[in-house]
Design a protein that fits this description.
By secondary structure, the chain is an alpha/beta fold. It contains 7 helices and 8 strands. The protein binds S-adenosylmethionine (SAM).
Length: about 220
């Protein structure tokens, strides 16, 4: 189901000056590749050199904001491609004013234009759209073209933490991660009934677990 476009979307996004680092508009795709680069100086943005954690497909931002609150020595960047959706996250951040959480309105495929290689300690993929149709598998955030981008962004010893309710997407992700040089650890097939401590729930996680669905989780790393 499509979400209704929010009133005054552009004007409201423009007001989110403190929390929203960049809006990737249509014009991005009309630029020459060399002109697309806009590498962010994150030490300047956060005013410290703390480690960066990146959430990709953050939706309304609950996980990112809570993760930042519980980890004041980490800087969190949350990415969402749909402006209509990220607006809720940014408007909340403008009220809560976290020092260590910022938002990027762009597509995951373009992250290499904004973030320095080797600059990210951890990537979170929470309830990524599973795109069950085989013909759309290249849109899954664990398809090999995305994994190459994550490999470039991750620091040495960096990790990907993934959660989903979708068994097909989980299976696909394990296969794709393994085929692309990642090792997998700390797998859970029912996170909420496991001894995992410190889980931070996302909006979709709350919905799916209230429907009785098990939550799958894994961590992936490069050797
Ligand atoms: C199912 S929602 C999950 C939202 C949130 N992570 C949660 O767990 O509540 C997936 C989100 O990922 C975003 N998304 C999908 N593909 C993306 C991409 N290529 N780049 C950035 N965001 C993407 C969608 O717009 C959507 O808001």
């Amino acid at each position: 189901m499509r979400m209704r476009r929010k009133n005054n979307l552009e004007e409201r996004l423009a007001l989110c000056k403190n929390s929203l680092l960049y809006i990737e508009g249509e014009e991005f795709y009309h630029k020459d590749v060399k002109d697309r680069f806009n590498i962010l100086n994150l030490e300047e943005v956060f005013k410290n050199p703390n480690p960066i954690w990146l959430e990709i497909g953050c939706g309304k931002g609950q996980f990112a904001l809570q993760t930042a609150k519980l980890n004041p020595n980490i800087n969190v960047i949350a990415v969402e491609k749909i402006s209509n959706v990220i607006l809720s996250a940014c408007e909340r951040a403008e009220i809560e004013k976290p020092l260590n959480c910022k938002f990027l309105n762009c597509s995951a495929e373009n992250l290499g234009y904004y973030l320095k290689n080797g600059s990210v300690e951890r990537i979170f993929l929470n309830f990524s759209c599973p795109y069950p149709k085989h013909t759309y598998r290249n849109r899954r955030l664990t398809y090999h073209r995305f994994l190459s981008i994550y490999k470039a962004l991750l620091a040495k010893d960096g990790e990907i933490h993934l959660k989903t309710d979708n068994a097909g997407f989980f299976e696909f992700s394990i296969e794709s991660l393994s085929e692309n040089g990642f090792k997998i650890k700390n797998v859970s097939l029912d996170l909420h009934n496991s001894d995992f401590k410190g889980n931070i729930e996302t909006e979709y996680e709350r919905l799916f677990s209230s429907q009785g669905k098990p939550i799958y989780r894994l961590e992936a790393y490069l050797t």
